[in-house]
Predict the 3D structure of the following.
Amino acid sequence: MHQHHSGPPTRVEYVLFDMDGLIIDSERVYTDVTNQILEPYGKKMTWDIKAGCMGKPEMDAARYLYSFFSDIPLPIETYLAEKNRILDEIWPTVTLLPGARKLIQHLKAHNIPIAVATSSRRKKFILKTGHLGDVFDCFEGKVICGDDTEYSMRGKPDPDIFLTAARELLGRNVGHPLEGCTYVQRRERSKGLVFEDSLPGVQSGKRAGMSVVWVPDPRLLDVGYSGKERADRVLGSLEEFNPEEWGLPAYDT
């Protein structure tokens, strides 16, 4: 997936953020811990495999990983338990990625409606963000997590999580993913901007009818991608984002 320009982007009125690998440097941690567990079995999660795991709910991602290692004698439940045990010790020290603090605090300061839509479970979200209050407090609790069962959401790449965040957290008239979409709702969806790092996340945002800025790990650019959905912009980091291009307030000089 390469840089894509489709003319002037829609003027943005609200912004939705993925979290893992976009705001916080957690995808690198996931990779390291997964390969630490797989190493005794002579297995390794390559970037081709990881690309299909990113952005998915935990069990979906684990099943996808295991589809490449059908002969591994490690039960998937044991793998997940060990992975979570190690990760839970690391999450309270995870760091922000470049440009995240500046952008989120900027949007908050200019009263742009913002929310987080993450496949992370609520308990993990708290572990990952508790020490990063100067950034995550900007969302004022407007966070949808992958295990928020009251919304009956399908995981990414389906559009549910972004439509749910826009509708339930920001009060936008975007409708429901499994119902017909009116012209008014389609227009309302087009006013949303999604920031994502994963390919399933890009698909989810585009299927929700929103603009998508993709901020991938550079190694993802070498991974084959057969989906028809394309990001509206591809950036090396959030530091490269130009708010004015989207009708958002300019950064203070």
About this structure: The chain has ten helices and six strands. Residues 76-90 form the longest helix (15 residues). The chain has two domains: 14-25+94-246, 27-92. Residues 1-8 have pLDDT under 50 and may be disordered.
